[in-house]
Amino acid sequence: MNAYTSLAEFYDLLTRDVPYPAMADFYETLFSRSGIRAGTILDMACGTGTLTCLLADRGYDMIGVDASADMLAVAAEKAYGRENRPLLLQQPLELLDLYGTVDAAVCALDGMNYVKPDKLREVLRRVLLFLEPGGIFIFDINAPSKLKGLDGEVLLDETEDVFCVWRAAFDHRENACRYGMDIFARDGGKWKRGREEHVEYAYEPFELEMMLLDTGFEKVALFGDMTLNPPTASDQRIFITAMKP
After folding, report:
1. pLDDT tens digit string along 150-172?
2. Low-confidence ranges of the chain (pLDDT < 70)
3. Is residue 20 located within the same domain as residue 119?
4. How many domains does the structure of the chain reveal?
């Protein structure tokens, strides 16, 4: 069961509470602090492209990359007809291969938690490869405490046309949270069912900081959820930035 297949059609409906404009504002604050005023931005694990298109509308030349063809199909519909149309590429992050360099790379909404531990270093290496010198890499993770706290939880998302049940289980041996997801969607007078599984790996922030430095990044900084303050024990989402020398 692959992730983001059955879910792709309904992802935007079920994530209407995601504060994309505030996230774009936060990115622009971090861009400004690093000296980036405009340029080409890579949106890694871009999904249905909401953030990609939002940043494109703000004047950035956007490249959206995702492994899911279904999610990219939705993103392509959003991008079509835009004056500053993003370039969309279907690639797993560990095989990232761009036509040139970018001024910044972002990975939103715990996309990095989906990267398997044995592929994480290669993802970081490829981001570093395609960043311009002085470019910034910004990503966020679900804190390990959040993922561990989901163990045994049953989560419900619903609208009039779709009902989604998430069942979470934390595997301490794998250090990962698995979500079994059942999606029931209205199809005329009937309901159709889809099922998929998501896996998020619990990465300690200091572990990622050391790996970024070992890969060749510098000036690694950690922030609490969309703030410029250091993360606290209560922060469930942590932002990490790193610069290419």
Report:
1. 999 998 888 888 989 989 999 99
2. 1-2
3. yes
4. 2
Query: Is residue 2 in a domain?
Result: no
28-50 burial, b if ≥16 CB within 10 A, otherwise e? Answer: eebbeebebeeebbbbbbbbbbb
Same domain (yes/no): 165, 56: no
pLDDT computed for residue 2 by the predictor: 67
Question: Sign (positive/negative) of CA torsion 32, 34, 39, 44?
Answer: negative
CATH of the domain at 185: 2.20.25.110
> What local confidence, expressed as pLDDT, does residue 186 receive?
86
| pTM, 2 dp | 0.95
Q: CB-based contacts of 235: which residues, under 8 Å, 6+ apart?
A: 143, 224, 225
% of the chain beyond a pLDDT of 70: 99
